[in-house]
Design a protein that fits this description.
With 134 residues, the chain is α+β, with helices and mostly antiparallel strands. It is 29% helix and 31% strand. Helix 3 (84-94) crosses helix 4 (117-131).
């Protein structure tokens, strides 16, 4: 199934959804500790970055310094779509919110400061209402 590429459609139908829980970014050598089930991994030269529930990181004794809320944009965006990440980042930045974006095959996933995740969803919902029309 091909994803959406039209920016207006992407914005109007992005349907941001806040996933339950607190998520952290941590790094390990090459292997994940037992009991750790990350929602995202990125292999970097310095080690394996893992984004996982804070409770799992705490149980495994993994260090982190950023606690995030995880928002999924429910629109199926094409990987070659132009402008969605920029529009979302710009709207969140205007509200003073940091955002770490990860693209999955079907959806984009945003990690924002946990204590402001609800506000981030409101910003994105406003962008969907107004950004898809102009």
């Amino acid at each position: 199934m091909t994803g959406e590429t039209d920016l207006r459609t992407l914005l109007a139908t992005m349907r941001p959804e806040l996933n339950p829980g607190r998520y952290v970014f941590t790094t390990v050598g090459r292997d994940l500790p037992p009991g750790v089930r990350p929602v995202v991994t990125v292999a970097e030269e310095e080690g394996l970055t893992a984004v996982l529930p804070q409770l799992e990181a705490d149980a495994a004794g993994l260090a982190y310094d950023y606690v995030a809320g995880w928002i999924t944009l429910r629109v199926h965006s094409a990987l070659d779509a132009v402008g969605l990440t920029a529009a979302v980042a710009q709207a969140l930045a205007a509200a003073g919110l940091s955002c770490n974006v990860v693209a999955g095959f079907h959806h984009d996933h945003l990690f924002v400061p946990y204590d402001r995740a609800g506000e981030a969803v409101e910003v994105l919902e406003s962008l969907a209402r107004h950004g898809g029309n102009g």
